[in-house]
Amino acid sequence: MRYQFEFRPYQRRFLRSLTTNHGNWDIREGIILRLTDESGKLGWGEIAPISWFGSETLEQALDFCHQLPGEITDKIIFSIPDELPACQFGFESAWEWGSEFFSMPHAQSYSALLPAGEAALNQWKTLWQQGYRTFKWKIGVYAIADELEIFESLIHTLPASTKLRLDANGGLSYEEANLWLRTCDNLKANGKLPLEIEFIEQPLPVEQFQQMLELSTSYKTAIALDESVATLRQLAACHQQGWRGIFVIKPGIVGSPSRLRKFCHQHQIDTVFSSVFETAIARQAALQLAAELSQNNRAIGFGINHFFEQEETWFQTLWNDL
Fold this sequence. Notes:
By secondary structure, the chain is of the alpha/beta class. It has helices spanning 58-67, 74-77, 85-96, 120-129, 144-157, 174-189, 209-218, 232-240, 251-254, 257-267, 280-293, 314-321; strands at 2-20, 23-36, 42-47, 71-73, 110-114, 134-138, 163-167, 196-201, 223-225, 246-249, 270-273, 300-303.
């Protein structure tokens, strides 16, 4: 099959800076793809890289798009190299695009992202009113003593039925990771924890995989890998090295959807699907994968709409004005 290929870069500004251990993020940039088949049917895709997380850079993705001819084939789509995982996802999603929009899960099925630091103590209330019952809070951003103090306030402020995820983005030292895990275990053991700490996400840097494997067997509080399994290649490597805990999968940068399906079906891994702050184009494809492949009924990490202005017409404007 042959397709007419067009693309448009985009920029979306966050309402407030997203602060993680990797730094501040102010503008989400990406590329919208459009494929038109021989019958005139349209397929939409999105390339939404996060280079500091393990994908290609936006510049590399743009270079790849610029190098392609105006007419492409299935063979080109399925031969995109593994060094361009966000491109693999974007093109394959456009190739798979169906005419029916995916039905969005209820807010209770989503995990909502809280800001780092004290801001979380107020932000959760609005999100709770919107129906969220699982929250993810960024740690490893400020001094650990300050974060533990805020954590103590947060767990006694959130309603008892809440699930809380702590996301370090690889920003803790080995000693700090032990302290967080021990704190969570002690709270649980003492019966002082009114809510559930679901897991600590990526406590240590990617290169400290063996230490995270060791920590996962030393504490009752679960650990989830995120940066360590950003791409399919990394996902397979961690599984091969013995990781049987939780895998946080970001479809937008993991790579080929068809190969992801094959891996998940083959190994039945415990997954949490998560956003890369994509637009509705990539989100539809990502949610479809999450619906197909999620195990253990874990909330998916797509509660991020409050980080952007809701612009209903931005997509049509993007396509028509360029």
